Amino acid sequence: MDLNIRVAGEAGQGVQTTGSLLVGALAEMGLHVFATQSYLSRIRGGLNWFDVRIGDGPLFSGREEADVLVALTDDALRVLRPHVSAGGAILFEGRCDDGCIGIPFSEVAAQVGGSGVMANAVAAGAIFALLGYDLGPLTEYLGVQFKKKGAETIEKNAACAREGAKRIGARAATVAAPRPGAGPVSVSSGTEAVGLAAATAGVKVVASYPMTPSTGVFTYLASAADRYGIVVEQAEDEVAAVNMICGATYAGVPAMTTTSGGGFALMAEGVALAGMLELPIVILLGQRPGPATGLPTRTAQQDLLFALHAGHGEFARALFAPGTPEQAYRLTRRAFETAHRFQSPVILLIDQFLADLQTDTPPLDAALRPIDRCIVTDAPADYVRYAAAAGGVSPRAVPGGRAMVVVDSDEHTEDGHLTEDLEARVRLQDKRMAKIEGMRTEALPPERYGPPDARTLLVCWGSTLGPCREAVDLLRGRGASVAMLHFSQVWPLDAAAVRRAMGLEGDGAARPKRILSVEGNATGQFLAVLAEAGVLADGERILKYDGMPFTGEEVAERTNL
Predict the structure, then answer these.
(1) pLDDT tens-place string over residues 369-402
(2) What is the rounded CA–CA span in Å between residue 35 and residue 50?
(3) Residues 350 and 423 in one domain
(4) C-alpha distances out from residue 481 to 264, 295, 322, 469, 471, Å
(5) 379 lies in a domain?
(6) Containing domain of residue 315, as a range?
(7) pTM of the entire structure?
(8) In whole angstroms, what is the distance from residue 402 CA to residue 392 CA?
C-alpha cells in the first residue's frame, strides 16, 4: 500500500520545510519514502509543491495524483484540487467549502508558537492525525531538526504539531495509510549521494560557478570541506572553473566541477584541453530543459549528445548516468576511478529530478577512501609524459618530483613539447584514441529488470530507472510480458554485450518484439547513441520534454499494452 501527500503553496511559505519534515519523520517510523519537488525559478510567489509518497514497500517513482493535498494558497487549491484521488483529503489554509478541511496554519502557529513560521509543524501534525499516526515520531523528529535552535524552539514546534492534530478532530484516521514497520530509515537525495561520494573518493579541489540543479552538490562539498580536506572555490565563471580543475589534476590531486547545460557550453574548450593534456577531470552535468536558460528549475535528459560530443577534435571520454541516489554514490566514485585510470575527462550526468528526490537508501559510507590516482612516484630520469603504452595510457608522473613533466595544448611529441611533425601527430592521436577500447572493455553492463523472454523491452538511462521499474511492475500485474534494461554507463558501450543483453543476439526466443526507449527529451538521444555504437538501428520512443519527470503510471500507460 502507498499514499501520496502533496504540500503546495508559494515560494517562501515553507513548502520545502514541511515536506522535508514529513520525509524525516515518516522514514523514522519505518515507512518507505519517495519525495519529489516541483518549483518555479523565483524566490517568492508562484505555485510550488512537494510530494511525499510513503509505502510499506520500496518506492521508485512519484505519482500523478495526491491522496492528501495541503493547499496553502487559493491558487494551490484551484490548480491541484482536480488531481486529488477519489476518497482523498484536502487541508486548506483558511476557510474552505464542502469537501475540504479548513485550518489556518499560520494563525494557529502564531497563537501557539508565537510565530507564523511554525505553520509547517501545524500542517505536519494535522497530516499525522488525518492518517491515524501517533504524534510521537513527529515530535521526536522535530527535536532532531531543530536541535541547534534549542529546547524552547523544539517545544514550541511540538506544541504547534499537537494543535494541528487537534484541529483534525473527528476526521482523524479517516484516510487509509500504510502502517509503520521496520523498514529502512536512512534517506538520501541524489545531491547528497554525489557530494558524499566525491568527498570520500578523495576529491581535493572543487571549482564551480553556481548553476541549478548542480549547485546543491557544490554547496554540499563546501560544507564538507573541513572534514575531508577539500579546497572549494567559487570561480568567476565556468571557463575559469574547468581550467582550475585542469590545473589541479596536472598537479596531481583529484578535482571536479559542477555545472548545468549553459555552463557546460562554456567549458567545452577546457574539456578538449583535458583531452589533449590527458588530464583526469570529472564534471558533474546537471541537466535541465533548454535551449538557453530554458526552464532552469525543471528536469530533462537533453544533454546526452552534447556531453558525448562537446569539445573540438576527437578524444576519449566516459559518461555515467545514475538512476538512484545509491547508484549516484557508486558511480561518482567510479567516475573518479575511470578518469584517473584512463587519464581522460569523465562526465557524470544527473538532472533536477534525481538531484532533488529523496528516498530511503542503505546508509552511505562516509569514511574517507581515496581512489588510486594511478601516479608513478618513481619515474626514471629519462621519463617522458606521453610515452607509448599499451592501451594508450602512459605512465603519469606529476610535477615536483625528479621527473620533468611537460604538457602542451598544441600537438606534441612523447616528451610533451609541441610539434608540427605530422607523423608524430598521427602517432599521438592514435595513442589517445586507444583509450576508448580500454574504457569499452571495462564498461558497466546494463541492468535488466523483468523476465529474460519479455516481448516488450523498455530501454532507459539515468533517472528514468525508477519510473520504468514501476511501470514494469504495473504492466506485469496486468499480465503483460515486459521487462526493462537500464544503462548507468552511457558511453562508451560494448556493442556486442549490449545486443546480447537486449536479446538481439543468441536465442531467438528471447528477442523482444518491441523495444521502447524512455527518455526525457524530444528526439530520443539515447537511441542515437545506440545507433552510433552499432547496437540498434532504431526503436520506438516514449519521450517527455515538458520539464516534469516521468511517473511509473505514465510510462505504463504510454506503452499501450
Answers:
(1) 999 999 998 898 899 999 999 899 999 999 988 8
(2) 7
(3) no
(4) 41, 37, 26, 14, 12
(5) no
(6) 188-360
(7) 0.96
(8) 24
